[in-house]
Amino acid sequence: MEQMEIIDSVCTYCGVGCDIAANVKDNTIQSIFAHPDGVVSEGKLCIKGKYGFEFVNAPDRLRIPRIRKSFLAKNPKIHEAIALHVNELDETWCETTLDAATTAAAMKLTEIQAQYGQKSVCSIGGARTSCESSYLLQKFTRHTLNSPHVDNCARICHSPSLKGMRTTIGEGAATNPYNDIYQTEFMIVIGSNTTEAHPIISNRIVDMATKHDNLAVFDVREITLHRFAKYKGIIPHEANLLILNMMAYVIIAEELYDEDFLKDRTLGFDAFKEKILSDPFANPKYFENIVGYEHLSKLIPKVAREYALKKSMIFWGLGITEHIDGSYAVMAITHLSLMTGNIGKVGAGLMPLRGQNNVQGACDMGMLPYYAPDYQEPKEIGLMTPQLVEAMFEGRIKAVINMGEDLTHVHPNTNKVNAALNTLDFIFVQELFMTEIAKRADIVIGVKSAYEKTGVYVNAMRRLHLSQPLVKSDLPDDWEVIQMIENKLSGDYAYEDSKQIWDEVREVAHRRFSGASYNRLERHRVRGLQWPVHTEDTPVLHQLDFRTDDGYGRFHYHQYELRGMVQELSEKRLSGYHLTTGRTLAQYNNASQTSRCEKLNKRYDETVLLVNENDAADFSSEKVILKTQYGQSAPLVVKLTDKVQPKTLFCTFHHAKSKINNLFGDRCDELILTAAFKSIKVEVVNV
Ligand code: SF4
Questions:
Q1: Ligand 1, from 12, 13, 461: best to mutate by most atoms within 8 Å of Cβ?
Q2: Domain-embedded: residue 536
Q3: Is the Cβ–Cβ distance between 187 and 209 less than 8 Å?
Q4: I need a surface site. Which of 38, 55, 117, 284 has the fewest CB within 10 A?
Q5: How many angstroms does the Cα of residue 217 sit away from the middle of ligand 1?
């Protein structure tokens, strides 16, 4: 029996990126606790960080590669090539070796590209794999397979933040470290249930709000942060851009902007000002006639004034981005910071709260159809995931490589995605468990989890953390699987470890990572380094110049368009139910890891539909089915509450069995195609 060992690493769950330490004995994690010196976790972890490690040894971990029997039957040459290594598992699957599985994958990809062309294959990565694996998957797809089609899970979360921020300030990333919350004078949280989704950041916000009464919160339902807010904004669905433009209107109308900052650091303010002042929706008085939301007509000016006159920060999450005007709303957020000079300073800035542990890193590595690593231009722009789905129907995409992403669960319009996948000749999946997409695959390869490997992760404040294994595993890392396939196609890769890949990243993506060697990241494991990392790292971005081509910040005005719930309210005809979805503290994304951890699953193992008490008469049974033209949910448990507004509903999306994402269609951000998960009109059927 081995001695207990304590190993430092980083939490595998959300984008906060907490520093953890684990008690490990006999190659098994015994417990996880906050690293005592952790600058992110500050001595605390949420329940996912603390109790979410049992999945590592879950009995149903994918340990042996699987190949679908029907795939072998349809591909006799492949079957013949690997026949010696194929053993029947059940009526659907055979087990095989890693070598045979990657041989089969290489043969099938070759055949498909010969028949349908090189661009008939695509890769979709998760945002929870390491930077090294994300980098290698996009390199393999772009250079070995010669297809431009790479995308990642950011498509359904923060792509509008990247788009909106790059358009206005040249960089799609948080501007400050979390600890600037202690330096700020005023905070706005909009479209983020921070307490559930980013709890350790929420700790800081609550702490400061309690001490200084300096918090404004806008959300469509009453969330925990409202309890600590000086300004409690409950807003209608799809009103973000409206409210943000109203704040800009107040700042302009009352001349609260920072003239020197505007002159020295920005372009286009005069045109923006003219447009805002003539915008029929920009005056907060608009809300005086919106029944149930009249309070906003007075609250918005108060928030705008305090924001403009103090050193302020704005925090947002998917409540901003997952709308058809998500990118425009992010631009509207950056406008506020540019007008008031609340950016490029300690304690003043913009904080998009990234969802997964490496969503920032996956984008930095070029796992996007329109950016190569380091946000350089790619040779050819590929298709975004919703476009890939359409291309599947058109027969232009015939194979998908899916690394740590669950296309058939976390994406919208699940029925349509499944129908599109039916048209494919080949689905290849690298995963920890038999997720929904793995169940659809032709070949599934079990890979190391974050707690079993070495790799770099970039958290929501651009902080790089070199994760080290807590336990040993014989499974391959994601990048090793890609390398094995590549070597059966071109034979160009000879990476011996993740460090060699990272050293290549530091050359290719030198503008952000040149100074971030493994050695240095190891030395600064607890402090972490924030990119760009050269001789020094960069805790606060945009201090001298914005990261646009000429260094100036830009205004890109977009007028709010009346629609949905706001339109119904303004025309006094609110009808039916408006659903929004989100996270709960105890589960994480598709719950493939958290649902295998007893303490977490005990807290939340069923999808609960929150309904306003005043709407109880419409919910005559304990469970209801929700329906839209795109599909229907499974029966959902109804819980009456005063925390959601009348005629609005809330539920989580974690459990595939709820079939919630069947309800959402193709409505998405106009610029960047992120699904509009945050509002849809649904029919309620009592069951
Ligand atoms: Fe892990 Fe996020 Fe919880 Fe921190 S806040 S412990 S990173 S899940």
A1: 13
A2: no
A3: yes
A4: 117
A5: 22
